[in-house]
Design brief:
The complex is a heterotetramer of chains A (about 325), B (about 250), C (about 300) and D (about 300). Helices cover about 75% and strands about 0% of the residues of chain A. Chain A has 13 helices and 2 strands. In chain A, helix 12 packs antiparallel against helix 13. Classes of the chains: A mainly alpha (about 325), B alpha/beta (about 250), C alpha/beta (about 300), D mainly alpha (about 300).
Amino acid sequence: MKKPGSRTAYILGKLARYCIAISLILTINFFLPRMMPGDPVINLLGEDARNANHFDKNVIAELHKYYGLDKPLHIQYINYLFSIKDNNLGYSIHKKLSVAELIGESFYWTLALLLPSTILGALMALIFGSISGFRQGQLGDISLSIIFVLIFTCPCFLFAILTISIFGFRLGWFPLSGFSSGPSSGLNPLFDIIWHLTLPVIVLSLANAAYIFFIVRNMIAQTMSEYFIFVAKSKGISERAIIFNHVLRNVMPPFISIIALELGFMVSGALIVEIVFSLNGMGTLIYDAMITRDFPVIQGVFLIVTIFVLAANFFADLLYGIADPRIGDAASSINM
Amino acid sequence: MLELVEISKEFRTGFLGKNVKQAVLDATLCVDRGEIVGLIGESGCGKSTLGRIAVKLLMPSSGRIILDGVDVTDMPEKRFREFRRQVQIIFQHPETALDPQYTLLESILESFNKIGIPESEQKDMLLDISEEVNLPLDIIDRHPNQVSGGEIQRAVLTRVFAFEPKYLILDEPTSMLDVSVQAHILQLLKKKAKQDNVGMLFISHDLEVIRAMCDRVAVMKEGRILEEGDTSKMFLSPKSGYMKQLLVNSD
Amino acid sequence: MSQGGLLVVRGLSVAFKTQKGTVQAIDGIDLDLNENETLAIVGESGCGKSVLGHAIMRLLDDIAVVRGSVLFRDKEVYEMETTALLNLRGGLISLVPQSPSSSFNPVIKIGKQIEELIEKAGKEKGIGARKRAVEYLSMAGFSQPEQIYESYPHRLSGGMCERALIAMALSVEPELVIADEPTKGLDALSRKNILGMLHKLAKDASMIMITHDLKAAETCGRIAVMYSGEIVEEGPTGIVLNNPRHVYTKGLIDAQPSRGMKPIKGRHNLFSHNALGCRFKERCDAASSECSNHPLLNIVEDCRKVRCCHA
Amino acid sequence: MQRAASICEVLKNMEIIERKWFRSLNIGRFTEQIPFSPIKTIGISILIALVFIAIAAPYIAPHDPEKTGIPYQSPSTDHFLGTNDLGQDIFSELLYASRTSLVVGFLAAIISIVIGVSVGLMAGYYRGWVGELLMGMTDVFLLIPGLPLMIILAAYLSPSMWNIIPVIGLLWWCSTARVVHSRVLQVREMQFIESTRALGYSDSYILHKHVLANTKEVIYAKFSLAVASAMLAEASLSFLGLGDPLNISWGEMIHFAFTRGGFANDMWWWYLPPGLMICITVLAFVLITMESRKESRLVELI
């Protein structure tokens, strides 16, 4: 009997990767403003700092001192790590607010867009992908594939612009922008938000379903061609039971980790969709920051988004480790 | 004489090589030219590992490989290449024995080019060897997935015979083939050993094949060579209990 | 009309449509199997022996064109409703599939997969099914059946998977077992164990053993030799192997290492399945002008059939 | 008698060999591979047309895209797609923009493929700690969400095409490395690798001639998808206003249409055509991969 491998080793290995990823992100975030062309003060404070200070050398020198830029790099780095720990992501001169506060407000709105879209997109991909995979080469499969290829080729922002101009502008079914029509409209606030979120969620979930659809379709088709499916058929198990107990059960673990990996794309998509629909989430935040060259905000958003994605992935890896019994065993079998 | 002296091999896997697996332990075996030596054992006993060590596809953890009196164990790969011609190996699975990207002919030519046979002579050489190994020429431009396992093994033999090897390691060359094809190839190998004085190490789990092919037999279990001797003697009066057990079970 | 046998196959043909043309995988097979009888189907790769096994259980893909009839207990398999068919497979007829290491679903415990079959066949439910699965695993020669029950397939070696497969196939007490190459890729030691175990477990059932190994075939009562999609010789194993009447059977026996490894001349290819006349004539030393007529499977002695005009 | 017959057969076969001989020594083998399927042909034709447009832009374009005139015109015979906020001809701009989009897509894809393939090959062929390290690194990069990182890099660098290309290229190699790695591991297990080594060939020969040859299909497909992804990424960056102001791309055209009133004024002829062009180009690249990636291999690809 081959030796079972240790699942702890698998999880520890994964954990190490996440630690490296996080420290990498922190380091990038630290070095970018200091290494990039231009005065680091400007890079740390944004273009507004330049305008406000009118290139006053004394002020800039003071700011250098205030932000500790005159200290050696490693001390700066340690200070930076401590400030991150204290949830201090810098200060936006442009908005006259701390970055942490700014992000704190918009983060929930982004989540409100992201979570339903992720779930909806994953469900759509799973359902349509399964239909397509089980009926490969048939009419349903071909038409589903064509629809999703078209969505796949369409950049997210264009897709959003098109839906807005059709369903918002021309047909007027949905509001054009924002999360709510304001308290004065007299609508039930929850219903109002849902109404505002419908279009963006549909756009985002379809765009992401298009990515995952093909993966699911082919995972299903591949699993169907495995020998153990034939064996299951020979056992006289009904097609329904084969689909649910055998095929989907094999497809689920990789599906979970794909969803998590796609979350990175999801977040990117969400940022863009927010901009088009003028939703006050992190996407709009970063977009405004970009126009005004408000670097602290850009950096803060980047940091938060990345950590969020990493956390989700780690969670998915844990799930995968539980769902797939082969995890951790691969290394212990030697090819003789 | 190809000598394997006190060969041991251990595989390390896992974190910092924590899991040690002893594949071969103190195995000593020699193959003389013109003789076929059988190596029997159940799957996982380390016989394939020993075969790979003999051609230095794997480095032994300890022990020496001596080829015609020259110790080649620690010889750097560059210098060892000239000896590569003399010892060749043939594997078990025909379906992956040749690169699926190339036709049989291209794979065969690859070995001709390695030996440095001028292009003008390659055709004659191909005709010679393909007649010897009975490789039908009309399938030579096909890819490996379009021909049968027996035909692939013949193409592999063509490739290997071009080197005029002095020693041949055969790692279950026919266990995946049908009986009638197996008979063809075994006859061919036997003839080759006697005619061209090639020494062969025949690795197999099939006692009958070993009995029909080999002059001498060694039995391997859990990485050790338990017993070695002339085929007739081994099959009539085995000393080790394991060999007895094998014989009882094969009837 | 009742023929009385457990399994009656008449004129069964299977053709596959490929890009290069149609390949007649099996062609006009007639087969009878009585209760408690063991039949070995012997032949080399590409002769259609596995296809025959699958065709009996109606397990072939849509691309296969099947003609002829398969009667199991006087019921036509190819006219069955879905539910009846599902009861037949893995209930009345059990398949021991070909490649042990890829036959189990990798993410489900071995025991659960056996249990699935037992519950599906309606033999036991819940705890009872579990007990039965463990019992059969221990009958299959596992000293710690509970442990095997709880393991996932990738932790077992090929030989162990094979035994678990046999335990699974027989746990539903089928009336017919079709064992597809049960000894493929096994070494001498395990081969004998597996065969002994298979016969022991299947002692109350009929069995069709599909194999290329004459040694394995010897353990069966009757033997049918296939070549190019046809049965060329059939009869009681002892008699056929000691006194083969068809040239191909002779060739197969003589090609064994213990019998001097005499090769059969020529080679077999898939498209000779469609050839006219005797399909073996190209490779036969005794071939004559008569052989361009397609020979029939004639009864030569009692309970022996040979498809050769010289026999 | 039999000897004569066999010689006869050999002579008959000589002809076949002679023919194959030529083929095996020539590169002609490349062309005789699987004929292109209709889907692939469509993809390639679209691509050729696009490349032609990009090269011949100065000759086809009715106006100089830089020349300003009356702003916000509707489509007319003079200006097929009207004019933008500066009065520049949108149709000409569209033709010129194909250059930027294609160049960015191709170059970024080349960078990502070169890095990805080398990392994947190395990690797959030299297992042990080298492979562990390389794949660990790949995994780390794969985890970092692409667009935010691209945004932050592009924001600090000056907005130029030549900055955007390496930024996209450097962020896209991880998935290629993953795919190539898993394919190489598969190929490595095949016995012909060992037998070629036993013939005395060096590692670099085997890597190049056998491992790479067996991975090339995956690489082609991945390259095509990488171009598509790079173009989409470029479009997204440009849409966010991080594009090169000197070399307008399709994404940037949409950006301007969006920020300078094209969208608010419902001038669909401004933002829709560049959008369609992006779709068509990406579609072409996706169609090309449709066939060469075999069904079973799709899983690893996207």
